[in-house]
């Protein structure tokens, strides 16, 4: 009998394939599809804009609340005097939480606001770009920025008015008497506003002066920033992190200073129905005349010092965060 006939045969072993399985192929394909999708200019701008907004607002939250309180402090009220005096009083009365009051809703608002603003700017740039060019001229940058500003305001305005109410309701202004320990939160404030002050109209109160200010502000912000980047770019078109920070700070300061009176009007109208503040206006023009007459020519610039202390680090961190996140998403 031969050896081969007496040897017990074991089970057949299938040869190992070096080719990836169907599941692995599908997973890899899905990842590459998602990576390509997230790298699209509009999508990358949307995500990066949202992150940039949250970072920038949290960094300057104390100055943001200080600005709002000074803006809505009515004629004759000196409870909050100056930036540092306001910050000290806030700390004394409310502690560190006072510096962050309203920042939660501000981040809830600013993430979609910034995401919509940056992504819509990218879309508008593509729509109005001249054939054969890769960059907009100054006038088109202003136009694209203005349209992006209007789009983002309309999309998120109810969150902005709730944020303003949260920032003001526990401050020592006029006859406000909200218990600081039991002050209503974001959802309670929004629901109360909706139920008692006119429904959906109440959630958009003050949007006209807001748009009047935001359109030129955002337009200037984008136009100045991109112009500064071009000035600071090297021969390959690259800009350092410091250059981006500087460009963001300058663009924010210029845009805010030139459009600041509209921001004061926006805040006044957002709290216009809070009778204990000592003022009520029937129209934008009535507000301008009343503020100028009762509070002097600088009444329209109340809180500007706090705003300038806020806007440079805010816009610098916002633009830098935006550029870093967008480059990461696009694999640059």
UniProtKB/TrEMBL annotation:
<keyword id="KW-0472">Membrane</keyword>
<feature type="repeat" description="Solcar">
    <location>
        <begin position="136"/>
        <end position="231"/>
    </location>
</feature>
<dbReference type="InterPro" id="IPR002067">
    <property type="entry name" value="MCP"/>
</dbReference>
<keyword id="KW-0677">Repeat</keyword>
<comment type="similarity">
    <text>Belongs to the mitochondrial carrier (TC 2.A.29) family.</text>
</comment>
<dbReference type="GO" id="GO:0055085">
    <property type="term" value="P:transmembrane transport"/>
</dbReference>
<dbReference type="GO" id="GO:0005743">
    <property type="term" value="C:mitochondrial inner membrane"/>
</dbReference>
<dbReference type="InterPro" id="IPR018108">
    <property type="entry name" value="MCP_transmembrane"/>
</dbReference>
<keyword id="KW-0999">Mitochondrion inner membrane</keyword>
<feature type="repeat" description="Solcar">
    <location>
        <begin position="239"/>
        <end position="328"/>
    </location>
</feature>
<dbReference type="Pfam" id="PF00153">
    <property type="entry name" value="Mito_carr"/>
</dbReference>
<keyword id="KW-0812">Transmembrane</keyword>
<keyword id="KW-0813">Transport</keyword>
<keyword id="KW-0496">Mitochondrion</keyword>
<feature type="region of interest" description="Disordered">
    <location>
        <begin position="1"/>
        <end position="21"/>
    </location>
</feature>
<protein>
    <recommendedName>
        <fullName>Mitochondrial thiamine pyrophosphate carrier 1</fullName>
    </recommendedName>
</protein>
<keyword id="KW-1133">Transmembrane helix</keyword>
<dbReference type="InterPro" id="IPR023395">
    <property type="entry name" value="MCP_dom_sf"/>
</dbReference>
<feature type="repeat" description="Solcar">
    <location>
        <begin position="40"/>
        <end position="127"/>
    </location>
</feature>
């Amino acid at each position: 009998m031969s050896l081969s006939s007496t040897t017990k045969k074991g089970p057949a072993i299938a040869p190992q394939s070096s080719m990836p399985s169907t599941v692995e192929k599908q997973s890899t394909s899905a990842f590459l599809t998602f990576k390509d999708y997230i790298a699209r200019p509009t999508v990358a701008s949307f995500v990066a804009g949202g992150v940039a907004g949250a970072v920038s607002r949290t960094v300057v939250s104390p100055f943001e609340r200080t600005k709002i309180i000074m803006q809505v402090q009515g004629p004759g009220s000196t409870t909050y005097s100056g930036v540092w005096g306001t910050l000290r009083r806030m700390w004394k009365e409310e502690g560190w939480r006072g510096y962050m009051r309203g920042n939660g809703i501000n981040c809830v608002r600013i993430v979609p606001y910034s995401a919509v603003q940056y992504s819509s700017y990218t879309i508008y740039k593509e729509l109005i770009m001249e054939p054969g060019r890769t960059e907009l001229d100054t006038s088109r940058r202003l136009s694209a920025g203005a349209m992006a500003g209007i789009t983002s305001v309309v999309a998120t305005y109810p969150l902005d008015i709730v944020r303003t109410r949260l920032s003001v309701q526990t401050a020592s202004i006029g006859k406000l008497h909200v218990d600081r320990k039991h002050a209503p939160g974001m959802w309670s404030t929004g629901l109360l506003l909706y139920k008692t002050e006119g429904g959906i109209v109440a959630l958009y109160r003050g949007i006209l002066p807001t748009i009047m200010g935001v359109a030129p502000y955002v337009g200037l912000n984008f136009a100045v920033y991109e112009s500064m980047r071009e000035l600071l770019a090297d021969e390959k078109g690259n800009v350092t992190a410091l250059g981006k920070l500087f460009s963001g700070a300058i663009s924010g300061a210029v845009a805010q200073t030139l459009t600041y009176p509209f921001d004061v009007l926006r805040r006044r109208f957002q709290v216009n129905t809070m009778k204990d503040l000592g003022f009520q206006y029937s129209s934008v023009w009535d507000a301008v005349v009343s503020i100028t007459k009762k509070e002097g020519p600088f009444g329209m610039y109340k809180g500007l010092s706090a705003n300038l202390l806020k806007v440079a680090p805010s816009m610098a961190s916002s633009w830098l965060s935006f550029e870093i996140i967008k480059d990461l998403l696009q694999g640059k």
